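Thread title: Can someone regenerate the structure for this chain?

I was given the following input by a collaborator and told the matching structure tokens would be attached. They weren't. Posting the sequence so someone can regenerate them.
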Amino acid sequence: MTGRSHANHVVDQFGAQAAAYVTSAVHAGGADLDRIGTLVRALPAARALDLGCGGGHVAFAAAAAGAVVTAYDLSAAMLSAVAAEASRRGLDRIETRHGAAETLPFADASFDAVLTRFSAHHWRDVPAALAEARRVLKPNGLLVACDAIAPEDPLLDTHLQAVELLRDPSHVRDYRLSEWRAMLEAAGFTPGAVLASRPRMEFTSWIARMRTPPTHVAAIRALQAAAAAEVVGHFRIEPDGSFLLDSALIEARPR
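Best answer:
Regenerated them for you:
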């Protein structure tokens, strides 16, 4: 049986939903996005890379904070939506570039900041992408990695990965915080402050963003209904399927 490549899965999933991600309330705000703006404002005349920019919310926040931003993504449709929204907002300090996170078409030490938010769980090879981020970052630069994270408990981890993959075939893994620290260190970074949050995933909009087929929606609901009490308690699974998702923003510096 021959399937589509992972890159094609990503493009298929996000290209058709580009506008939905630009306007998504879950992605358009939050303490993590505020923190990114604060960090960028502390870097005068910064050049920033929004790695796996998705709907462009990091790019918009960084540009509003004074940075010149390169919004970089595997989906050309997503990049077009970001460019259109940047123009609508009057943000003329954002350029778009197309490509994969693991192979960055930029010179060494090109950026003062590399920023990524809710993208890495789709990357085929996070260690390779982090090594590339380290390469294009200036020696005194800043990496900010923000993503959904898996709990350290294997029971909870397995449930999360199962429902994520049923919802979205481009999902690879929500990494544990311990895994993030290890990958950052292996790529030449020193992990620093962590900002944790637990955004609520409203079930109907959560599946609508990914156009999850009804059979997969039913499978997710069946897993939730059969979940152990520890799983239901941790994720605070509601009768309609809505739940809390662990996320973390990690600041790191080149070692």
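The radius of gyration is 18 Å.
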